[in-house]
């Protein structure tokens, strides 16, 4: 998940050539979403096995790929409510599995990892809820199916 500035200034211009290639290959935004999720599970596996550097590199790749699903959807004009739902649902599962993986790797800190998970659920829930309820808190021009409060709430 990226904040608006990063999405508009970095992800969109750098991701557009990749989105064009994916489009030519007939790959759908939802396929990219699912692939990013599968890669995040691979990352979680490596992290849980204490291969932290490999796991984190794979995680970064999964998150960059996850940012491309929206770029691709907007490029081919296939943004949808289902795609937004699939994206946010698999993102939340991916983040949860990563926290669980770190909890396995650093089991002596399980109580703290549970607090991280609770904090994350609280942050994402409130960012989504506030973004849906407060038109002045969202970017009306970003063409996303689910709106999140802009700024710190989204980036957090």
Q: What does this molecule look like?
A:
By secondary structure, this protein is mainly alpha-helical. It is globular, with a radius of gyration of 16 Å. 76% of the residues lie in helices and 0% in strands. The termini are close together. The C terminus is likely disordered.
What are the key terms here?
156 residues; 6 helices; mainly alpha; single chain
Largest sheet: none
The 3D shape can be described as globular
**Low-pLDDT windows of residues:** 151-156
Distance between termini?
9 Å
Average pLDDT reading: 81
What's the tally of helices? 6
How many DSSP E strands? Answer: 0
- Helix percent reads over 70%
Our Rg estimate from Cα atoms comes to 16 Å
The secondary structure category is mainly alpha
Content of β-strand: under 5%
Spell the H/E element sequence: HHHHHH
Summarize the structure.
This protein is an all-alpha fold.
Question: Helix and strand layout, with pairings?
Answer:
Blueprint: H1 4-24, H2 29-48, H3 52-76, H4 81-105, H5 110-133, H6 152-155
Helix pairs in contact: 1-3, 2-3, 2-4, 4-5
